[in-house]
């Protein structure tokens, strides 16, 4: 791995060394548009010149509102080349949330790329310079394609310094308002180097970019591609996602638990579990089936397959292992630039988030809260020195808000969130995360939120997976009751789940009940449903249909 000092330096190296190499592969209307390093550099420099022509103050903040696409990468490079700071915005946010981030970040201009419903979002964008990518259907203000056809390339490319502010990443946040996490150029480069020591990728690897690049984890994948000189592919749409991933066969793949559950669900729909178990017991068929499933999922060439952003059930990890796919669970946050703990081929323990990465210092507070110090911790929350100060202890450790414990081999297990704990009417505190992980073994459950403030025992609010929705009410109820019988004996009396309530509504990004990374927003779900806890608890049946 070459030692670059900045993302821009890395890209310019590969542009010079492999100008005709394909860097970005953008699917559109069933066809692939290939962008070479040279073409990406040329377009980025022209957009950078257009940004320069706005005569913005030095180191201005420029927002990027787009789904993952080739133009996201080019826009990010253009922002770097023009000497400014990127403000990525989740492409699923509504107008009010977009306006809040733009105003808080003091954004001076915005680049608008691939979106599903810009019409409903555009009222959130104030009267600032806009560059829109016409390829994806937006034709307002300054058109990307017009700039590329008419503008000159920037000649005085900004040289990024390690201490420069590189980006402000707004947390997707399961509670409260999003906070602007400031990361420097050096933070990003140190993080990429740390991750590449765990998963060493050969130069020009194949990568697949699909999780929102506004999230720190996918942003690091982007920067890995700069360092690695990789070829990056994107999905065209949700409908084509599985096909696009299968065609790419990336060398590294990162997903959140909900996605792993969805993949499993699709496989079981086509090969019911009993049939799958039977086929895996036949020696020759076993090998053929595993290879076929790995290729169909797009993971045949993946040397490092990762799950993160939220805890994943051990049962799900073991299920994937049964079909020849090893998932390594990792742990990191926006604030620590993802550099915290990871499982790896040489040291992997299912059910844990692995061991601390090199140069990471960890301590547990008296309450069991995980506190971390590394060489790429955030520079603080933008315009919020009070909250920044509160996020660190007196020794400079970042207080993660997660509760965990180490085993004798140094593997960390997450046991909950400080803020997620609730108190029953018996005065007992409950950490919902372990209960939720155990309940999620039931593949009829899509999402789960364990609650119980003000009632004697916790109850489980759940939404159904496609497998669950396809079952008769009798089969569904029987399966959920069996899960309760299996889960409850492992927990203390006050922790045992009394009821399962099946929700009518869907929990998703559109209605604000999940984050863009598909984590359940517990506080909002509680706000909606808490008034019903007592009546649900008093019902005779244990499985309740809302």
Question: Which features does this protein show?
Answer:
546 residues, alpha/beta, Rossmann fold, GMP Synthetase, Chain A, domain 3, 3 domains, five-stranded parallel beta sheet, five-stranded mixed beta sheet, 19 helices, 21% strand
End-to-end Cα distance: 55 Å
Mean pLDDT: 91
CATH class of the largest domain: Alpha Beta
Just name the CATH architecture of the largest domain.
3-Layer(aba) Sandwich
- Count of DSSP E strands? 27
Rg for CA atoms: 24 Å
Describe the strand arrangement of the main beta sheet, using strand numbers: 4-3-5-6-7
Shape: globular
Number of domains: 3
The quaternary organization reads as single chain
* Secondary-structure class: alpha/beta
Find the CATH topology of the largest domain.
Rossmann fold
Largest sheet geometry: 5 strands, parallel
Number of discrete helical segments:
19
Helix content, binned percent: 25-40%
Structure description:
By secondary structure, this protein is an alpha/beta fold. The protein has three domains: 41-219, Rossmann fold (3-Layer(aba) Sandwich), CATH 3.40.50; 252-300 and 303-417, Rossmann fold (3-Layer(aba) Sandwich); 422-545, 2-Layer Sandwich (GMP Synthetase, Chain A, domain 3), CATH 3.30.300. The protein is built from 19 helices and 27 strands. The model has no long low-confidence stretch (mean pLDDT 91).
């Amino acid at each position: 791995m070459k030692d670059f000092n900045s993302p821009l330096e890395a890209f310019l190296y590969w542009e010079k060394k492999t100008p005709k190499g394909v860097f970005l592969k953008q699917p559109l209307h069933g066809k692939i548009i290939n962008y070479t390093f040279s073409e990406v550099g040329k377009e980025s420099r022209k957009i950078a010149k257009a940004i320069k022509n706005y005569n913005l103050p030095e180191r201005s903040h420029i927002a990027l509102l787009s789904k993952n696409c080739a133009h996201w990468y080019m826009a990010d490079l253009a922002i770097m080349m023009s000497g400014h700071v990127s403000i990525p915005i989740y492409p699923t946010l509504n107008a009010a949330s977009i306006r809040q981030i733009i105003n808080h970040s003091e954004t001076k201009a915005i680049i608008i790329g691939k979106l599903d419903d810009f019409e409903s979002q555009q009222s959130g964008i104030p009267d600032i310079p806009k560059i829109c990518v016409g390829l994806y259907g937006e034709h307002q203000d300054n058109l990307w394609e017009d700039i590329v056809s008419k503008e000159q390339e920037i000649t005085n490319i900004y040289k990024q310094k390690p201490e420069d502010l590189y980006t402000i990443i707004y947390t997707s946040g399961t509670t409260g308002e999003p906070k602007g996490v400031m990361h420097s150029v050096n933070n990003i480069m140190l993080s990429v180097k740390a991750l590449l020591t765990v998963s060493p990728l050969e130069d020009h690897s194949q990568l697949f970019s699909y999780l929102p690049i506004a999230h720190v984890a996918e942003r690091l994948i982007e920067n890995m591609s700069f360092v690695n000189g990789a070829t990056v592919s994107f999905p065209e749409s949700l409908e084509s996602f599985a096909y696009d991933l299968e065609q790419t066969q990336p060398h590294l793949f990162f997903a959140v638990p909900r996605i792993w559950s969805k993949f499993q669900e699709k496989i079981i729909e086509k090969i019911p579990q009993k049939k799958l178990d039977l086929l895996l017991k036949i020696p020759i068929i076993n090998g053929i089936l595993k290879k076929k499933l790995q290729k169909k999922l797009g993971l045949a060439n993946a040397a490092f397959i990762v799950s993160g952003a939220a805890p994943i059930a051990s049962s799900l990890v073991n299920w994937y292992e049964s079909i020849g796919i090893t998932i390594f669970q990792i742990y990191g946050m926006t604030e620590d630039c993802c550099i915290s703990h990871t499982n790896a081929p040489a040291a992997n323990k299912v059910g844990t988030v692995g061991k601390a990465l090199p140069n990471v210092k960890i301590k547990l507070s008296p309450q069991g809260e995980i506190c971390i110090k590394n060489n790429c911790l955030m520079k603080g929350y933008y315009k919020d020195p009070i909250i920044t100060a509160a996020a660190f202890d007196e020794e400079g450790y970042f207080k993660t808000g997660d509760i965990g414990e180490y085993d004798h081999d140094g593997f960390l297990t997450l046991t909950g969130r400080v803020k997620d704990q609730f108190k029953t009417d018996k005065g007992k505190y409950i950490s919902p995360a372990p209960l939720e992980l155990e309940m999620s073994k039931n593949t009829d459950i899509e999402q789960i939120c364990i609650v119980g403030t003000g009632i004697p025992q916790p109850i489980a609010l759940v939404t159904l997976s496609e497998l669950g929705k396809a079952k008769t009410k009798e089969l569904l109820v029987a399966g959920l009751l069996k899960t309760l019988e299996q889960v409850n004996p492992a927990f203390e009396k006050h922790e045992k789940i009394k009821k399962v309530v099946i929700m009518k509504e869907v929990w998703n990004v559109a209605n604000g009940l999940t984050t863009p990374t598909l984590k359940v927003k517990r506080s909002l779900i509680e706000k909606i449903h808490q008034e019903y806890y007592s009546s649900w608890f008093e019902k005779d049946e244990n499985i309740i249909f809302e």
